[in-house]
Amino acid sequence: MGPHIVSAFDDDLIAVQARISEMGGLAEDLLSSALEAVKNRDPQLAQEVIARDKRLDALEVEVERLTTRVIALRQPMAGDLRILISALKMASTLERVGDLSKNIARRAVYLASVRPVKISSSIVRMGTQTLGQLTEVLDAYTSKDTALAVAIWRRDVEIDEIYNSIFREVVTYMMEDPRTIGLGSQLLFIAKNLERIGDHTTHLAEMVYYIVEGEPLGDDRPKGEPIGLEGL
């Protein structure tokens, strides 16, 4: 898309995309820090994640305000309109990633208060893969790389399969020792939050594809099978 006759319009679009990039960087950092808090049993770092999520909330409001103003004043069409509509959706999605990271941090405060368990390392590995996919989709947004966006979209099934594996592991752990039910529940909440972040990452990939290609990515994304208690 080339420059507009009204250069202020270009400035507005750049400002909107810059806010999305800032939100993406902050969402990445919050998730990374929340995982560090779980891994290192660090309640202080977890509290910092909880406090810093407010900045992500404020940025979402700023994106909504800025995008609404640009649409009202400039009446954009085609690619410009896709950028702005997608920005609204991406801001909401990234705010949700921040909320889920904050939830993980809250669980990390609890985990730091009880004895260490080996299962936590499985959670951290799942988190590392989830964070990696989030980083990649934000790179795809910056570079407008639809091939990368599609690849991430297809790989969400990997996160689903890790979640199912952890679910079985934690439930078995709780069945073998009912005294661990409280701890196991916290671990399951963290794993579920990570699985949801994986879903949000695929939504971001869909937005990248829509911005560049001008059409939806599709609705046949590979998904893992819902987990049950059969066979435990």
Automatic annotation (TrEMBL):
<dbReference type="GO" id="GO:0045936">
    <property type="term" value="P:negative regulation of phosphate metabolic process"/>
</dbReference>
<dbReference type="Pfam" id="PF01895">
    <property type="entry name" value="PhoU"/>
</dbReference>
<keyword id="KW-0592">Phosphate transport</keyword>
<dbReference type="GO" id="GO:0006817">
    <property type="term" value="P:phosphate ion transport"/>
</dbReference>
<feature type="domain" description="PhoU">
    <location>
        <begin position="123"/>
        <end position="208"/>
    </location>
</feature>
<dbReference type="GO" id="GO:0005737">
    <property type="term" value="C:cytoplasm"/>
</dbReference>
<dbReference type="InterPro" id="IPR038078">
    <property type="entry name" value="PhoU-like_sf"/>
</dbReference>
<dbReference type="InterPro" id="IPR028366">
    <property type="entry name" value="PhoU"/>
</dbReference>
<keyword id="KW-0963">Cytoplasm</keyword>
<comment type="function">
    <text>Plays a role in the regulation of phosphate uptake.</text>
</comment>
<comment type="similarity">
    <text>Belongs to the PhoU family.</text>
</comment>
<protein>
    <recommendedName>
        <fullName>Phosphate-specific transport system accessory protein PhoU</fullName>
    </recommendedName>
</protein>
<keyword id="KW-0813">Transport</keyword>
<comment type="subunit">
    <text>Homodimer.</text>
</comment>
<dbReference type="InterPro" id="IPR026022">
    <property type="entry name" value="PhoU_dom"/>
</dbReference>
<feature type="domain" description="PhoU">
    <location>
        <begin position="20"/>
        <end position="107"/>
    </location>
</feature>
<dbReference type="GO" id="GO:0030643">
    <property type="term" value="P:intracellular phosphate ion homeostasis"/>
</dbReference>
